[in-house]
Amino acid sequence: MYIQTQRTKNNSIPRISKKEQFLKDPDIARWYYMNSRNSELSADGMLRRLRRFCEKHNIKPIEIIELARKDIKHLQDMIIDYVIDLESQGYSKGYIKNIVDAVKSWLRYWNLSLGDKIVMKQNNSRVSKYERIPTEEEYTAVSYTHLT
Description:
Number of strands: 2
Mean pLDDT: 83
Strand content: under 5%
Distance between the termini: 45 Å
Structural class: mainly alpha
């Protein structure tokens, strides 16, 4: 459905991307397809974030579902610990929220829910506090350099 085989530099041995490997699972492919109905770009991001969460915890997506059915509190604790870990590394609230949203979306696909028990710190951004609008001189200098 969404699987496209990529070739290596010497064009001989097919290489399967992480996305393609993940989409081999029919349930993940369906979940991805449903998310891509609104935006394929958003679906790609959600797939990547779900994969990142699974890789970090060394679990498969179906194991998230099994854990949610068996012990939802343990899954909540796992996600909260992950949020705390990412916050301590300085990741922004938006980045963390997107990962949590991907896991929640995967659970909703299976008619499961975590509720609103996962809360992130406010104003936790490592980029925005250093950003500013460039001065006219800086903008002109950058624009001029790209023209030459």
